[in-house]
Structures are given as structure tokens and as C-alpha cells.
Amino acid sequence: MTPEEYDKLSPEERDLKDKEDRAREKREQAALPYTWKQQLGEVDIVVPIPKGTRARDLTVKVLKKKLSVALKGKDPILDGELCKDIKVEESTWTVEDQEIIHIQLEKVNQEWWENVLTHHPKIDTTKIVPENSKLSDLDGETRGMVEKMMFDNQQKQLGKPTSDELKKHEALAKFQAAHPELDFSNVKIT
After folding, report:
1. Statement: residue 97 has pLDDT above 90
2. In what order do the strands lie in the sheet with 100-106?
3. Runs of H (alpha helix) within the chain
4. Contact at 8 Å (CB) between 150 and 52?
5. Is 150 in the same domain as 109?
6. 114 closest CA partner among 21, 48, 46
7. Does any domain span residue 129?
8. Residues 6 or more apart from 61 whose CB is under 8 A from it?
9. 9, 39, 112, 184 — which has fewest CB within 10 A?
10. How many folded domains does the chain comprise?
11. Which Pfam families does the entry mention (predicted)?
């Protein structure tokens, strides 16, 4: 469904669509051989492994655009191209309690990932609600964009014009003031 089609749905239809999408995403993510969560700057992956597994029993490759985890001599548990680039030097992996591998990937860019590996199911990043995030943690450009999106969303919910619509009205008002001889009574802003 395109964003335009989604915007045409009634609030009830949007709620139903969102619930269906979340349920589908949850099923798809649960079928993966790992769990993952993310923040703007990092991705945390937890891979279950047989109890008693040690680091020396594993082959783990963390590259700028690729991730591979396997028990030595076995097929990979996960193997593929990362959806975005990572900072290899700042990414780590550890074996915890000899039953899970914890992989922490540092993102090159602070952005939400749709998936970890490109061939795995995607999540809808527009529905992400960051936990305990602060606008002050973001760089200036990203912060400005998020604040604008938050303002526009609030304006839409109140049935008021968005920031872009307000700019158009302001430009028209300035033009009207500069040209009082013109009739603007039938002007529509699109």
C-alpha cells in the first residue's frame, strides 16, 4: 500500500491496517534465527546457540556490509549482506552464558534499519517509537527534521495547516501586501 492510499483510509481502517501489519511483522521477526533491536546509532542482535558453546567453537565475521555467524563445521546460523554500512572497528560480539551470541553493530549513519540482513523481512520504520530517546541526542539536521515532523503530525491531528502549508500562506500574505491592487479573493493554495 502506498502512503497516498494509506492517507485515504479512515482512522478505523488505519488502526486495523496498523494492527495487521504489526502482527505480520511480529510473526516474520519471530521466525528469524535471532532477535534484534536498534537505536539510531546501533543495532543489538542476540543469536541463540547450543548450551556450552564457546567463542572458539564459532566463526563470526563482522564486515562493513556483511555479517556471518556459524558453528565451526556447520551451516551458517545467519549469513548475508547488512542492510546498511557499519563501523567495523566499533562493532563487537561476545558469547554470553555459553548459550547466546550478543552482537553490537555501530551504524555509520544514525538512521532506522528496516532489517538486519537484506534478504530478511522488513519492518515499517515509520512506526518505530524510540525508547528513552531525547531530541538533544540527535544531530542538528536530524533534530530539525524530527521536530518538523512532530509539529506537522500535531497540526494534522488538530486539523490545522502543516509547516509547509503555513509557509505558503505566509508567502501569499506577503505578496498580497506588496500588491494591494490585485484581487486575491478567489485564490486557493495547493
Report:
1. yes
2. 35-39, 42-48, 100-106, 92-96
3. 3-8, 11-30, 140-157, 163-178
4. no
5. no
6. 21
7. no
8. 67, 68
9. 184
10. 3
11. CS
| Distance, CA of 148 to CA of 129 (rounded, Å) | 16
Q: Is residue 42 within 8 Å of residue 105, measured between CB atoms?
A: yes
Residues 27 and 39 in one domain: no
Rg (CA), the chain: 24
pLDDT in tens, 21-64: 889 999 999 999 999 999 889 999 999 999 999 999 999 999 99
Adjacent-strand bridge partners of 95: 101
**pLDDT 10s digits, 62-85:** 999 999 999 999 999 999 999 999
Strands ordered across the beta sheet of 66-71? 58-62, 66-71, 76-81
Containing domain of residue 51, as a range?
35-122
Length in residues, the chain = 190
